[in-house]
From TrEMBL:
It is an enzyme of class 5 (isomerase). InterPro entries: Asp/Glu/hydantoin_racemase, Hydantoin_racemase-like, Iso_Racemase_Enz_sf. It comes from Pantoea alhagi. This is Hydantoin racemase. It catalyses: D-5-benzylhydantoin = L-5-benzylhydantoin; a D-5-monosubstituted hydantoin = a L-5-monosubstituted hydantoin; D-5-isobutylhydantoin = L-5-isobutylhydantoin. Pfam families: Asp_Glu_race. Its EC number is 5.1.99.5. PANTHER family: PROTEIN DCG1.
Length: 245
């Protein structure tokens, strides 16, 4: 019987990506940790911009509410933009970890500087905003894009995976970094092989987030309910969002 249950939320609606994320989460989890991988029933098939994130955030909140009602111990938001992270923490008792924040934190524990490899060039701006928000500006050496959409990682040709590998090798040669952060949940299963090939830490935020949730729960730490992360003030939600009541 599991001693810990973690809800892993893929904020987009693509089931194959949810399956990829689930495999990475289970590979990182302790034997006694149960992983429940979910995605919203409505939303966008991939998250590649600010509007996508805004839509996806509502699905994240819906899933966090459902997970809390089911009694999960913690939640992971498995999109590198960490959509809806602070709002999700308002709804949750247990810890809520975004994979970008988790990967960047882990990178600073094993290297003084890290680079990020992500998907489309437009998402570099979002990643840069997160680097600043999380306080890692002086730790981040560079950000790279493979210039392919998120769902290219789900295709069988392997082109996207090879481009990730190529960008990681470029970062290792040129950036002066000691670790590389993979900037998409769909890259999650690539980290172990790339770490072995490059001989340096290549960090997947899904696995990093799993270990963070396990650690926080084992220490008896959940999301603070004091200050801005207290449960939302009670008010009646109407219309299309009334299921969030």
């Amino acid at each position: 019987m599991s001693s810990l249950c973690i809800q892993v939320i893929n904020p987009n609606t693509t089931q194959s990506m949810t399956d990829t994320i689930a495999r990475a989460a289970r590979a990182a989890a302790a034997p006694t940790t149960e992983i429940i991988a979910v995605s919203p029933a409505q939303g966008v098939p991939s998250i590649e911009g600010h509007a996508d994130e805004a839509i996806a955030a509502l699905g994240v909140l819906e899933q966090v509410k459902r997970g809390r009602e089911q009694g999960v111990d913690g939640h992971i938001i498995a999109c590198f933009g960490d959509p809806g992270l602070l709002a999700a923490r308002e709804l949750a008792n247990g810890p809520v970890i975004g994979i970008a924040e988790a990967a960047m934190h882990m990178a600073t524990l094993v290297a003084t500087r890290f680079s990020v490899v992500t998907t489309l060039p437009r998402t570099l701006i979002i990643a840069r905003h997160l680097v600043r928000q999380y306080g890692f500006t002086h730790h981040c050496a560079a950000l790279h894009a493979i210039d392919l959409p998120v769902l290219a990682l789900e295709e069988s040709r392997g082109l996207a995976q090879e481009k990730v590998r190529s960008r990681c090798l470029q970062a290792q040669r040129e950036d002066g970094c000691g670790a590389i952060v993979l900037g998409c949940g769909g890259m999650a299963t690539l980290a172990r092989d790339l770490t072995q090939e490059l001989g340096m830490p290549v960090i997947d935020g899904v696995g990093a987030a799993v270990k963070m949730v396990e650690s926080l729960v084992s220490l008896g730490l959940g999301t603070s309910k004091y200050g801005d992360l207290a449960f939302p003030r009670e008010k009646k939600i109407t219309g299309a969002f009334q299921h969030l009541n």
